[in-house]
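Lecture 7 notes: from sequence to structure.
We start with the chain below.
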Amino acid sequence: MNPDKIRYILNILFLVGALASIIVYLAVDDKKIFLYVCGAAIFVKLMEFFIRFTNR
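Predicted structure tokens for the same chain:
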């Protein structure tokens, strides 16, 4: 698969995760769930970041 396509998909997943993080933060009283969702979104962004800089 093309690295640019993988990066595009990971960026879309990050944006969805970031939006879900905001919704969970505002809607749920338990902030532990927010940390898990936000951590997953950050992990996806880090994967995209490493793909961007290793394929130069």
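Points to note: The two ends are 16 Å apart (CA to CA). The mean pLDDT is 94.
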